[in-house]
Amino acid sequence: MSIDIDLRDSMLKATPNLRAFAISLTNNVDRADDLVQETLMRAIANIDRFQPGTNMQAWLFTILRNLFHSEYRKRRREVEDADGKYAAALSVQPDQLPHLDFEDLQKALARLPHDQREALLLVGASGFSYEQAAEICGCAVGTIKSRVNRARNRLAELMHFTDMEEDLGPDRVTLSVMHAVA
């Protein structure tokens, strides 16, 4: 992209003032130089938006100021971690555990008798009421309630659940974090 010589000269003429303004905003010479460079790059990329006959320096200062404020808003949300200690302390739960739990559930469901699995899936997974499930299966409501209860108990047994709240609730690590925060 070629730029008009007069525009280029007015941009170069404004550069020392841009740098001084950037230093006053950032209090850091290196960041100020980066800001001036980014300003000039944006100005060149958008030179078609500059209206000839208007003040080039004012246009460049506006670009610099907007860049500074955008960067400031972005940096305000960032955490300074120069030595990497904060990042080293972070950990992420492995994401394969829910998948493995789901596979275990599928295998346990497959081991249930058909009538119990059907009742449990209608009431538990599909959200039908006991009455609706009984109508779908063509049996009494009490029969569906009994099948669901037996299916839940057998499922817990197959999946080796002893204490439902502990086994189905948050794991120990998550609980310790929740109690530390509270």
From TrEMBL:
Entry keyword annotation includes DNA damage: no
Entry coiled-coil feature ranges: none
InterPro entries, sorted: RNA_pol_sigma-70-like, RNA_pol_sigma-70_dom, RNA_pol_sigma70_ECF_CS, RNA_pol_sigma70_r2, RNA_pol_sigma70_r4_t2, RNA_pol_sigma_r2, RNA_pol_sigma_r3/r4-like, WH-like_DNA-bd_sf
Nucleus in keyword set: no
Domain spans labelled RNA polymerase sigma factor 70 region 4 type: 103-155
A Pfam family assignment: Sigma70_r4_2
Every RNA polymerase sigma-70 region domain range: 16-77
Keywords, sorted A to Z: DNA-binding, Sigma factor, Transcription, Transcription regulation
Top-rank taxon, per record: Bacteria
Family: Belongs to the sigma-70 factor family. ECF subfamily.
Name of the molecule in the record: RNA polymerase sigma factor
Organism in which the protein naturally occurs: Microvirga terrae
